[in-house]
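Homework help board

Subject: predicted structure for assignment chain

Our instructor gave us this sequence and asked us to write out the predicted structure in token form, then describe one feature. I got the tokens but I'm not sure how to describe them. Can anyone check?
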Amino acid sequence: SREMTFRWLATQFWRYRMAVLLLTLGVTSLDSHVNGYNMQMTRKISPPVAFLKTHKTGSSTVQNLLFRMGEREGATFAFPYYTYQFSYPDKFRAEFVDELPDGASQFDIICSHMRLDLGQLKQVMPPNTIYFTILRDPLQTFESIFSYYASTIPAFTLAKKAAEAAENKSALSLFLESPESYWDPKEHGNGLGKNPMSFDLGLNSQQWNSSWPADLTLLEETFQLVMIAEHFDESLVLLGALLKLQPEELAYVRLNARSTQDVTQLDDKIKARIRSWNNLDVVLYDFFVQLFWEKAEQYGLKRLKMEVARLRASTERIRQGCVAREGVPPGELEDLVRPWQTDTVTILGYQVQGNLTQQELGFCVRLVLPELQYHAHLYFQQYGRDMRATFRPLRLLLEEVKDVVCSCNCQ
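My token output:
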């Protein structure tokens, strides 16, 4: 009974805190005059965009850019019906999307985590939608996923437990010595445990099969751009050309970054084993890296270099105007800008500059705002209600407390 009451109070406090956070964002404008940069709110989003948010590739940084762009331009977001992801790891279905809000004729942006099903996605987004995603070197992607999800992906959890009994061996190295002994392909939660980028893209991520060439061709034809994390600024310039964005609108800070203490250093043996275990991701990544540089050549390499320099200069000006401290531990951050933490890694954040005007504060907070807080804010702004996921556990807790009270009164 005491534990139940504590859980109820904790949930009430969380709802109150989120309401305060949403109110804080609601009264601060997205306009900004940081270091002479003025964001105008006149252009409506055109054409619509669909961003496949892949895991641990730098996608949260891109999503934040799209959140800011969409909020600035009054876009209608296609949000998950219940929470922050589209019933992941199930393949995407149109029914996972919340209803079209009153007064909207179409969805303009979709950018929450999903496992891709192109046919279903095209049922949600208009015919003229621009599709893009981001990939990262499979070595860094798998290391990051293993670190971040060590307690949630069943295969990694088994390796983590085994490593606790072993001496001088990390869970990652132990897993890679014999991954098949930990990884069950029939386990629903193991999708990201092998070839995670292929899994996110809806491909057969367990082994190469006859569908792969056709699937790659379909992805190539559908995605106007596949960004490459190792060439992030170059990717942003090409994205800016697609979406007709200025360098200032592409300014960013890297979000969801781990503490360096949580990053496992990879020796040659571990690298070789990661490549072997994630051989399909290696094929996928190499394929789209080549396509990326073909698009870069079409854009013009000299022009690309000049635009990257412009982007970096404007981004640095905006960062200096907005960010007081970077790489800040979660315990030193306010709730509004504290990233979600797992029990295996520490996710760092940013402290915003003091003495900002209301307009500057509105822009700078959004620049560093973690995914969950921004998602909740935009959902409330679009629908005028909290996310359903906020209410469902609260209702269950109220029912549990009522049952406990009833049983006590009846005794």
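Reply (TA_rk): Your tokens look well-formed. For the description, you could write something like this. Confidence is low (pLDDT under 50) at residues 1-19, 389-411. That's the kind of observation they're looking for.
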